[in-house]
Amino acid sequence: MKRRSACVAGLTTAVLVALALLLAGSPKVGANTQQPANAEVKIDNFSFTPAVLTVPVGTTVTWTNRDDIPHTVVSTDDSKIFKSKAMDTDEKFSYTFAKPGRYSYFCSVHPKMTGTIVVQ
Amino acid sequence: MGDKTKDQILHDHNNDGVDRRGFLKCMAWAGTGALCVMQGGVLKSYSLSRIRELDPKKMAGELSFVQISDSHMGFNKPANPDVAGTLKAAIDKINGLATPPEFMLHTGDISHLSKPEEFDTVDQILKAASAKDVFYVPGEHDVLNDNGEQYLERYGKGTKGAGWYSFDKKGVHFIGLVNVLNLKAGGLGTLGPEQLEWMEEDVEHLKSSTPIVVFAHIPLWSVYPEWGWGTEDSAQALAYLKKFGSVTVLNGHIHQTMQKVEGNVTFHTAMSTAFPQPQPGKADSPGPMKVPADQLKSLLGITNVNYVQGQQALAVVDSTLG
What we know:
The complex is a heterodimer of chains A (120) and B (322).
Chain A: H1 2-33, E1 38-44, E2 47-49, E3 52-55, E4 60-65, E5 74-75, E6 92-96, E7 101-106, E8 114-119
Parallel strand pairs in A: 1-4, 3-8
Antiparallel strand pairs in A: 1-2, 4-6, 5-7, 7-8
Chain B: E1 9-14, H1 20-28, E2 34-39, E3 42-47, H2 56-59, E4 63-68, H3 83-95, E5 103-106, H4 116-126, E6 133-136, H5 149-155, E7 165-169, E8 172-176, H6 193-204, E9 212-216, H7 234-239, E10 247-251, E11 258-262, E12 265-269, E13 301-307, E14 315-320
Parallel strand pairs in B: 4-5, 5-6, 8-9, 9-10, 10-12
Antiparallel strand pairs in B: 1-3, 2-3, 2-14, 4-13, 7-8, 11-12, 13-14
């Protein structure tokens, strides 16, 4: 009996500490990003517009296919950080860029179509 | 029908490399139907309406087959809301040919979005063709999302790698190639080292007198690289075919007819059965071209190929659906 209540007490402490950390941390996060940013890339006439897009860290980029032909959005790095399915007309794909860097991508169906997202 | 075209010899030149003027003239006739025959090293092109005046014995030979391409089943945009209907019209056209073809080649983009029901519909429509055997190669629209697994499962029995293979018919050696997978950013169609190695071995032991037909989706010659109309490593593939006296390369992808003769090689692209695409550089992009409804069938079509033993090259005849 005694042992169990000690255990529960220990758990409660852990939860409280975690909660305290969360509360202390959350205002900071809010101050840095204000509100989540969104940006758009349009696919028209077999090209990405804008071809180079610069966004702040945490931005969600949404690609929209406005062609009559399916396209994809695939990052060119070996691990394929982001990779859409084939998007038919008016279909969309989104990816949130959590880290700064230069992200090149292309349409794996029409590889002449290339673009870059610069995350700062 | 193709009879609208004028009776005219389009060009007639020595087979000594690329004849730019002749090539451009052939391009100008894209979609209206042209017949190109090479005899004794000379290429002759006629508009389709002259076919009746030509000796039918020269046209019909040991082997006759048909190429269809780019059926894009599932496409339903304004450029053609009824791609099933135009594919059926293509099959009717094939069934009405004076010399029934022994088989068909489908040079890819069978489906528009790689959906199982799209492939099913094409399979169903092709059952009505008099020629029962169909030899396929995939287009980029057939291998979306799964790196071509479904395509291989459906059409790849007895093939190698991503679906390449060869077979012989009446002394002609056919090679089906796959150039729509593992495409690199900024690049063109790709065959890849594994397929090239296979091809080199495949043709190594053939006699140089064997007529060769190579078929693949994306053109194996540089039609218009700005629109991705070419294949990165096609020169390597063609190098393996240098010893052969007659090589015919049949492609799709660009939804219009084009022809080029380079040395021993005749390159030819077929019309789509679904929708036309613009001539190179004549539009902002190679996307589907919307034409008035009554003109659509004059820009869609099939390609009929005849091989006559003893003649140097295969006769390639394009005919439109309307």
